[in-house]
Amino acid sequence: MARFQLFLILLLSVLLVQSCAEIVPLTGGEKDLSAPAVKNQYPPQGTTNFEGNSIEVTFDEYVKINDPNSTISINPSGTKINSELKNKTLILSWDGNLKESTTYIIQLNGTVRDINESNDSIMQFVFSTGPFIDSLSYSGKAIGAFSNSTQSNLTIGLYPADSNPLQTKPVYATRTTSIGDFEFSYLKPGSYRLFAFQDSNKDQKVQPDESIGFVNEPVSPGDTIPARIRVFSRKAPHNALKATFVPPGIAVMHNLDSIDISKLTINGEQAELLQTYSHDSIAVALPPNTGSNYLFAYDTVHFSKPLTVAERSVPLLIRQESKSRKWRSGDSLTFLINDRIAIADTTLINITTEKGAYVGYSIFQQQNRITLIPDPKTTDHFTVEFGKGAVSGRTVNSDTIRFKYNSLLSADLSTLKLNCADLEGQWIVQLTQNDRVLYSAIKPAGDTSVVFKGIEPGMYNARCIADENRNGTWDTGDFEAGKQPEEIRRYTLTQKLRPNWDVEETLEREP
């Protein structure tokens, strides 16, 4: 009986302990958020008079190596670094001898990662083959020349002042951070050319399709004023005339720095200019051709280009030059035709209001363009209709097409005056929303303000382009000519435009 009672007491004790115990799932512990750290390094950091051909770095944990060919670099450049991982030790080696009396920096940019979480960091190992370590530094920032946005992961190189970065590798190289900053350390005194490039294939050579940036004057390590590099896409070389068809009756000629229409023939006939887009791009009329090929000749260059059956059968199209379907009193409406216009029948071109009232207009016809100017007294919304056959090309006629427009009254619009005394010279001043240009004006040299009339209400920003060559557009840079991209300044406007308001604002650069 006593034994049975003792058994019950022990059983109740076990059950009581189990009921109070908390069941906790097994875990791997806290997440490792730290990158591997160096435990030992040979030779030690900052070693002088170094004569070896390798360094060994032991970490505090097991690691893995990420893309060593792209993430390991040495400054000054010119030496290939080999990597080998043994347990926790990374061996970095090279063939041959290094330069005498030179400070070297081996940089690991995300090369070493821990096994589980792949945490990484930037590491530098510094030594000198001479009696001292060079100590000068140089820093700066890279931004997009057109966007003004910071440029990450660009290669920044320092070259001999008399060298050409397009043809040689840099002496020192680094890469920009996520916010476009860069910094060189342990530099030798001297004069250098500062150059930035995209380096997509990580070969430290500039490729023709890679974006670049440069500083015109040589730079000196130790200068405390940070450099500012404006990066731009290079203009494709224009060395062979090309033709692009706008069927059925137009060819756009391009790919030369400038095109002299008097030198161009098509099928042996003098080319007819329809429209000039820019100095290096024009539209010409295709002469009637029953065959399938057009022969283009420009100076001593000759080439043929086929116009396919499908292209020859494209119908005559009428399209609006502007994407906007809003009209202000006095505005003109321009329409483009994909052929040389033979006839424009005004009896088949009508403008009517939503109530069916006729709206008078003036018409101007050019080779492949029709411009209509509706009666400025019109206040109602209206439709422009090109009836069937209203426009005839040389072989086909247009079909019926309509374009609807909303009329904007002066009381619906605003006037904006921008004071811009700090914009010296001629500038292109644009009003934008989400970086989309809605209004544009030229501020001539000498003027200190620009006025926009008939502006739709809303919030705008200003984008200003230094029009140095006065061609009305932004021009990219040219390294060979030592020409920087034209400067662009962006301003955040603070006042909201409201209907029938006159607003004045001063453009002030953000600090």
Determine the N-to-C terminus distance: 93 Å
> How many helix segments?
3
Number of strands: 41
Largest pleated sheet: 4 strands, antiparallel
Please describe what this structure looks like:
- The strands form twelve sheets. Strands 1-2-6-5 form a four-stranded antiparallel β-sheet, with no helix packed on it. A four-stranded antiparallel β-sheet has the order 12-11-14-15, with no helix packed on it.
- The chain has five domains: 38-128, Immunoglobulin-like; 136-231, Sandwich (Immunoglobulin-like); 239-312, Immunoglobulin-like (Sandwich); 318-408, Immunoglobulin-like; 412-506, Immunoglobulin-like (Sandwich), CATH 2.60.40.
- It is elongated, with a radius of gyration of 35 Å.
- Helix content is 5%, strand content 42%.
- With 511 residues, the protein is mostly beta strands.
